[in-house]
Amino acid sequence: MLNLGLDVVTTAAILFIVSTGLLLVFGVMKIINFSHGAFLTTGGYASVIVTQAGLSWWWGIPCALAIGFVLGMAVERFIVRPLYARPLDAILATWGLGIIVGQIITLVFGRGVQMVESPVTGALALPGAQYSAYRLILVGVALVIALALGWLLNGTRLGLQTRAVIMNEALARGLGISSTRVRFITFCTGAALASVAGCLITPLASVDPNMGVPWIVGAFMLVLVAGSSLVNLAIASTVLGGAQVLVSTFINPVLGGLTIAVLAALLLRIRPEGFARG
Amino acid sequence: MADPVSTMTLRSGAGPAWRMPVAVGVAALAVIAVCSIALPTFLVNNLIRAFLYAALALTVDLLWGYTGILTFGQSAFFGIGAYAAGLVFTHAGFSLPLAAGALAAGLAAAWLVSRAIGWLAFYHGASPLYASVVTLVLPIVLVQGIYSGGEFTGSSSGLSGFDSFDVPLEAWFFIAGAFLTVVAVIAWLFVRSDAGRLLVAIRENESRCEYLGIDVSRYKARLMDVCALVAAAAGYLFACVQMVVAPEYAGFVFGTELVIWVALGGRGSLLGPIVGALLIDVGSAYLSGNLPYIWMLLVGVAFVVVIVAMPRGLAPLAVNALRRAVPRRRRIAPLAVEFVAAPARERDAAQTPRPALSLRDVQKHFGSLKVLDGISFDAHAGELLSLIGPNGAGKSTLMRCIADGAQRSGGTVEIGGADIRKLAPYDCVALGIGRKFQTATVFESLSVAEALRIARYRIAPPAKWKRDTTLELPQPALDVLRLTGLDKIPERECRYLSHGQKQALELAMVLALEPRTILLDEPTAGLTKQERTQIGAIFVALATRYRMCLLLVEHDLDFVREISSRIVVLHQGRIVMDGGVDEVVNSALVRAVYAGESHTGAASAEGSA
Question: Terminal CA-to-CA distance of chain A, rounded, Å?
């Protein structure tokens, strides 16, 4: 029972970590960044590079952050910026970018699965249960990311401008806010977050050139349901992630893998605004 | 324009619209027949598959390129057709009746799934992104279903080694080629026909289509059904030829590849996606052996570059280059369309004493904010009722509440005596209401005549396989066209019209619906003084001569005074005055409201009124 509860909490935390970058970009720019999966993959390979160089796995996090941010800068400038007015085309172009990144990684690292040693092994002995220590750490990481983003958005000048752009871009521009700059920084941050997420999930999932693809669909659905609020994303991750765990445990794992996508699609049909303005 | 002789010659030139596509189709079949013998086996083998993929790409093009529904799910329908064949041949064996049964089962399954997807993805008010989401979920669910089918579906390795039709490779080549040709010719006939222009109209302005009385969601769902059937048939043929089916053919990665081929070839053209699919698939067959990852990398780079820099794909580039290289001696003139008067329809409602429009206690609130509060009034045929009031008084909101049943929060609206309940805009149109938007909304890449034909869609469904040279329009619409000179330029694309012409065209489109009540939201905004006078005269004629009921939102008090028969003043969501022109215009209240005096002043004036 405790195990099941922890499964729900940790699954929600992982989903939250993987989806925040996408949510940030969707909230501010109103486009779905399908290269999110590619950034996840890049982050995963960042930890491969770091561990192969003999450094501690933890160095992968700053490394992934930097790679994601720099890559995000180039992508925003040359691919996303020309497509603001064509959101459906932006989905396609960023998906195409995912193909490019996947192929480049394949050319460099080969198509095989890379193994990354887990930084924290073993289980934590809890009253009545043994639970993977690393998964529990991720809950803390999710909280840190949520608090950091919350502070960025609510406690800084840039965050204020970002919220203004989210609410009414035309008005924000009229007030002298450079929405181009806000978008640029948002996209880079989103890319960096995705990259870090990719790095963080390496102890749980295999690292291969297409590792981002299975995650992107789930993250995409969660973001559509959550709209543009971090709180809603946390709720959506918990509710849908929880449903996924329950279905996987009690019915069957294949159906569990579909839970998020199917539930989100049905939820959006009944309530197009998702969890927003609940 | 009305010259009967020139019309005759035009008609004989443009009449057999099917001749050109059919001729091209026959020529294509001949080429395919020759190629089936002449080409090397390896290429023949690859082209069979590429032909079927190209047919599949055509369905993606119809949905996305023409209609604007970005779909990742056509692969799922392809997979359904393929698995129908694979499952039947594996488990029941192969015989001709079984093969026919498998085809029927595949088509039926695809149709059922498409109906479910249509119900999910297309409803009034659905966002285009949501439709894409649903088409993305479909192949994911399907593939997981195949994975969990165990022995029955062959799980991740698929099904292979089943028997199929005993037909030589050359014959399959011809069959697949003929399948593609037939699909392409039918698609060609349809998209060039009058009915096919609706696809483009939906892509350009879905909301305008709904307010022209067209149930867009239904239309999209039907289109998806047809595309699903074609995709399933292609999948069935694929399984019969290759004698192997695998989950990848139903997956969403394949679905995105289809979109890539269409984008590269040129969305919104038919030849582009065919060429794109053939070149990329055959190219990858040759190159992916030697340069497996580089080839995919190149395709990916080309895709991104095309999406960002050349949204129309490579087809227009090729066509333009060809035009420059081979100057045409005889250009096909755009189809001239003659506007003729439609026979006047029975106007039974004109005799009934019921008001054309009747509002009782209409409410609209956003949370605790009341935008409309207790709006009640009647408007009768022949009345030109102006709705005035300061910005934010709720005028435009009231218009929305009358034309879309889902908008208001409370109260009843009756159009010609019929309660609109929660009806969608297209059903309100059927009750006899027409709405002209504040900003002129026309279909940018359609011609004047095509736009008007879309407006007639509900009353006179256009030809599905040909283009008519005449268009019947009701007299009021014709009057507007004549007065503004639009009848002289039926082939002009809407994007090249002036602002005033666009406003006039939209008005003519609304009148083409033969409404009994028209809602006009600031129809004179941005017009010159002369155009304003002209359009004012039209409004008066509509009310007096054609006995329509006009509801006009307007800021220009002088204009309102000149043309109205009655004025309703709205202030802070309530009706504060309702009366004759002089009474209202000269009242202290209207002066107070319009001079922008303090809120309390207006409120006390309201009390005294």
Answer: 30
Phi, psi of B135 (to 5 degrees): -70, -20
**Set of chain B residues whose Cβ sits within 8 Å of the Cβ of A265:** 120, 133-134, 137
Per-residue pLDDT tens digits for A22-35: 999 998 888 889 99
Residue A275 and residue A223 in contact, taking contact as beta carbons nearer than 8 Å: no
Across the interface, of A100, A262, A268, the residue whose CB is closest to B304 is: A100
A152 and A192 Cβ atoms separated by less than 8 Å: no
Domain count, chain A: 1
Domains in chain B, ordered, with CATH?
17-254 (no CATH), 363-432+516-609 (3.40.50.300), 441-514 (no CATH)
> Which residues constitute the domain of residue A125?
20-216
Greatest CA span in chain A, whole angstroms? 59
Q: Give the 3-state secondary structure of A250-272.
A: HCCHHHHHHHHHHHHHHHHHHCC
3-state DSSP call for residue B473?
strand
Whether A7 is in a domain gets the answer no
Chain B partners within 8 Å of A268 (Cβ)? 130, 133
Number of CB pairs, chain A paired with chain B, less than 8 A apart: 100
Q: Which SS3 state, helix, strand or coil, does residue A150 take? A: helix
Shortest distance, CA A38 to any CA of chain B (angstroms)? 13
Tell me what the pLDDT averaged over chain A comes to.
88
Residue B263 has its nearest CB partner, among A92, A104, A262, at A92
| Residue A221 included in any domain | no
Q: What is the pTM of this model?
A: 0.88
Q: What is the mean pLDDT of each run of 10 residues along chain B (609 residues)?
A: 34 58 90 88 90 96 93 96 95 93 97 95 86 91 89 88 89 94 94 89 91 92 96 96 93 92 90 91 80 83 90 82 69 67 65 81 86 91 90 87 90 90 90 87 88 90 82 90 89 89 91 92 84 89 91 87 90 88 82 58 42
Which of A34, A76, A84, A100 would you mutate first to test chain B, the one with the most B CBs within 10 A?
A100
